[in-house]
Design brief:
Number of helices: 7
Helix content: 25-40%
Structural class: alpha/beta
CATH class: Alpha Beta
Largest sheet: 7 strands, mixed
Number of domains: 1
Radius of gyration: 17 Å
Strand order of the largest sheet: 5-4-3-6-8-9-10
Strand content: 25-35%
CATH superfamily: Vaccinia Virus protein VP39
Bound molecules: S-adenosyl-L-homocysteine
Number of strands: 11
Distance between the termini: 33 Å
Length: about 230
């Protein structure tokens, strides 16, 4: 969807450019930008999952970015969060989250590459039992502080290599990854409950594909969702 200059989003951005408040938006500006983001980037692009939309509407995305980046927190793009990592584009977070929208509260979700913690917060807000893993100590600390301050701590947040999954909390009803490897680590598939889903990017001949894998009994069914661009699973 293109952003028309007549949309509230376009107007707000133009206002920011005129008033130069991009680097110092008020709480009211941020609230409005969040509402416009949900309407135009999420609902406007076909995400219909109510649980996803209400979680994304409830979580202040700017709190997961440094203060000087608050003004661009609701932009239609991924943002650098330092250390070579990115917070995913809001639409991508919504698209991935919505794959789990049918799961009841209390479902157990493993999140690999929790980064600044925004996706973690969305999953916690949806009532899931979230086990998040991040490999970079600075991001792990930053996300822990933010999630604690917002009262959105997951069931566990671990500084570790997520390729190993988390055997002591398995089996999971869902596994979500925001970093891309050449294949899905076999420990993830081993840690799936029957009927569980993995939503993750996978590298195919230099292109990345967001895939959805469902386990039914001992069989795994893969569906391609769309082409994507994520940081590497190290
Ligand atoms: N959803 C996150 C996206 C962060 S980008 C957010 O909202 O911020 C992907 C993250 O995956 C990075 O923080 C990176 O450090 C992490 N990562 C990469 N390889 C990993 C691994 N093997 N184990 C755990 N985390 C990993």
């Amino acid at each position: 969807m293109t952003l028309s200059c007549r949309s509230p989003w376009g107007e707000l951005k133009a206002m920011w450019r005129r008033r130069n408040v991009h680097s110092n938006p008020s709480d009211e500006d941020l609230k409005q930008l969040q509402q416009v983001m949900v309407r135009e980037q999420i609902a406007g692009r076909g995400i219909t999952c109510k649980n996803t939309i209400s979680a994304i509407s409830a979580i202040p995305r700017h709190r997961f970015l440094p203060k000087e980046m608050h003004g661009i927190a609701y932009d239609d793009s991924p943002q650098s969060i330092g250390l070579g990592q990115t917070i995913s584009q809001p639409y991508m977070v919504a698209l991935m989250t919505s794959q789990f929208g049918h799961l009841p509260k209390g479902s157990r979700i493993l999140e690999i590459g929790s980064g600044c913690g925004y996706q973690t917060a969305i999953l916690v807000e949806m009532g899931f039992e979230v086990h998040a893993i991040e490999i970079i100590p600075e991001l792990f600390e930053f996300s822990k502080n933010t999630l604690r301050a917002l009262n959105l701590m997951p069931a566990s947040l671990t500084l570790a290599d997520g390729k190993r999954g988390k055997a002591d909390s398995a089996p999971f009803d869902g596994i979500i990854a925001a970093a891309c490897g050449a294949s899905i680590p076999h420990l993830w598939t081993e840690q799936m409950a029957d009927g569980a889903l993995i939503v993750a990017p996978v590298e195919d001949e230099n292109n990345q594909m967001l895939v959805r894998i469902q386990r039914i009994n001992e069989e795994y069914f893969r569906e391609d969702i769309c082409g994507v661009r994520f940081v590497p699973l190290v």
